[in-house]
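User: Fold this one for me? It's ImpA domain family protein.
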Amino acid sequence: MAGNTERLLKTGGDPRALADFTALRGELNKLAHPARPDVDWVRVEQLCLALFRQNGVELQTAVDFTLARTHTVGLAGLCEGLELLAGLVCHQWRGLWPPQTHARVALLAWLSDRLQQVWRTMTLCYGDLAQVYRAERALEQLCTQLQTLELKHLCKLDGVRLMLHNAAQRLESTEAVSGLAKPRGASEPPESLRFASVPVSEPLVYIISEPAPPPVQVVLPASPPRWKAGHGFAAGLSLMAVLMAGSFVIWQSVSSDPVRETLLATASPLPIPLSANSIAELKKQASDVEWARLAEPVLQASAMQLDQLTQLPPLWAQARGDALLSQAQQLWPTNQEVKRLNALWQQQRAAGAAPLVELKHY
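Assistant: Here's what I get for ImpA domain family protein.
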């Protein structure tokens, strides 16, 4: 159980402070050395594994591990490396080291060029077809994610994918029969270019450390109470009563203004008796019986008004006009219309007064 735990790897961060990372860079720098010294790929693989255990998996060391594993193991190592890279890019791209996108693209493009160089030195047989399919699937997953990120062409991994696809087609066309005799004159490939079909050490298991999704809680709203027909009828009556009461209050507040009614009553026009033509038209609208019924109340009201007129002083009209103007002047002293009415009233009084010559006889 302890051995299985030691082989479990998680995503790591910046490894540049570790001594193994410095040693790893020194070994891989031989690839660019003018003297072209041999790279110890076994040591490169061991340094990568040591960094995985100390720091975790990040893109720089994963790229180095893929190339070293391909050199030491062959096609099986290529499968392991591509699957590791696919897991990193597909699930840990946001938090992956190095954080710069251009640095990540440069690493994947560098790996693509190196893998194509190694591939040209490899010799495959029909039994390697399953491993080719496995590597092609991992690379397809990796390229799909890079296409989503719009980085596929910059990483130049299409060349590796085309290389695997052509190899698969070539192996499919060969006859899958073990122990076939080779043609005479065919030379054996150099021993240094042969690879084992299985890895020489137990593969490490990379655990994708993604946060667990929060639990989804579905809250269903409470079902509303059933609305019965009687409830709707009662609600309609209540609403109608409220509207009628509000309308009545508004109408009463508008129509009943005691101040306005009091002032208008003092200035209401005096009743004028009907003219002869009006009386003739009015008599046509009622029968003789109706006129006989109306005679008593109308004559009684006329008698009461005649009594009031006999009691009025001779200067009643003048006094009433003066009282109306005095009331208006007290209510609106600065109103121009009040001043105009006062001037007009004084003119009418002067026009109706007797001349001074006639007053001398009294």
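One thing worth pointing out: Residues 229-255 form the longest helix (27 residues).
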